[in-house]
Write a structure and sequence with these properties.
Keywords: Hydrolase, Metal-binding, Zinc. Its cofactor is Zn(2+). This protein has a domain of about 180 residues: Ribonuclease Z/Hydroxyacylglutathione hydrolase-like (Metallo-beta-lactamase, Chain A, 4-Layer Sandwich), CATH 3.60.15. Helices cover about 35% and strands about 25% of the residues. The chain has nine helices and 14 strands. It has a six-stranded mixed beta sheet with strand order 1-2-3-4-5-6, with helices on one face. A hairpin with a 3-residue loop joins strand 1 and strand 2. Helix 8 packs across helix 9. The radius of gyration is 18 Å and the shape is globular.
């Protein structure tokens, strides 16, 4: 049986730890800090098998070296680009399949450029580790990628099984939902989710993971095909918008200054 544990780091990051409860082997996604991860590993008497990296930003990779140094067993690192660490790195690309935790966890790599050109996500039929490509209620900023790339990446994610649970790398949900509400104030599913996430945060709990099904109901960046979102952007820009990509590009530009 697998268990997914959120490990808060920095102000709003999550390192995701996936644990095989039968033998206590585990893997982690995007360790920007070492100490919080090592504390969980020690407290739960875990054996770290692998580290998965979605992209090369400090808050996703800076904990790797110290974690590797603290482990007495070999730890495999997976990344789409080379990393400056004292350990072997296995490069992954589109459709690479990873057999982890004694084959109890099988993940496929999807290339998702947009936030960063090297960005990848890891997924199967039940879970998606989305890094900074897809957040609950939002998506990543466009840095060295393009709006076209990020839109395409999100459309591919949107096509996954709707029961997939989305595990993003940041706790940005409440701020993202406020933007979604500015775009779609009549969205009842969104209103309900705003209330739900507020209660979670009041209790000090993460707002993620969330189902892809629900994200498609509340996240405007996955709703560029809906009349309400496109009309909202036409009203904002005072011009007719003729494509989903144009809706998405306008949304991302608005969110950048929201």
């Amino acid at each position: 049986m697998l268990e997914v544990i959120s490990i808060p780091t920095f102000n709003d990051n999550y390192v995701w730890l996936i644990k095989n409860t039968e033998n206590n082997h585990c893997c982690i996604v995007d360790p920007g800090q070492a100490d919080p991860v090592l504390q969980v590993i020690e407290q739960q008497n875990l054996i770290l098998d692998a580290i998965l990296i979605t992209h090369h930003h400090f808050d996703h990779v800076d904990g790797i070296s110290d974690i590797i140094s603290a482990c007495i067993n070999p730890v495999q690192i997976y990344s789409s680009i080379a990393l400056d660490v004292d350990a072997p790195v296995t490069l992954v690309t589109e459709k690479t399949q990873l057999n982890l935790l004694d084959n109890s966890l099988i993940l496929t790599v999807m290339a998702t450029p947009g936030h960063k050109r090297e960005h990848v996500v890891y997924y199967n039929q039940t879970m998606l580790f989305s890094g900074d490509t897809l957040f609950s209620g939002g998506c990543g900023r466009i840095l060295d990628g393009s709006a076209t790339e990020l839109f395409s990446s999100l459309q591919r994610i949107k096509a996954l099984d709707e029961n997939t649970l989305v595990y993003p790398a940041h706790e940005y949900t409440q701020a993202n939902l406020m933007f979604c509400y500015a775009v779609e104030p009549q969205n009842n599913a969104l209103k309900q989710h705003i209330e739900h996430t507020a209660k979670l945060r009041q209790r000090g709990l993460p707002t993620v993971p969330n189902s892809l099904k629900n994200e498609k109901e509340i996240n405007v960046f996955l709703r560029t095909n809906t009349a309400t979102v496109s009309m909202a952007m036409e009203h904002k820009l005072l011009e007719i918008i003729t494509s989903e990509l144009a809706v998405f590009t306008a949304l991302r530009a608005w969110k950048d200054h929201f």
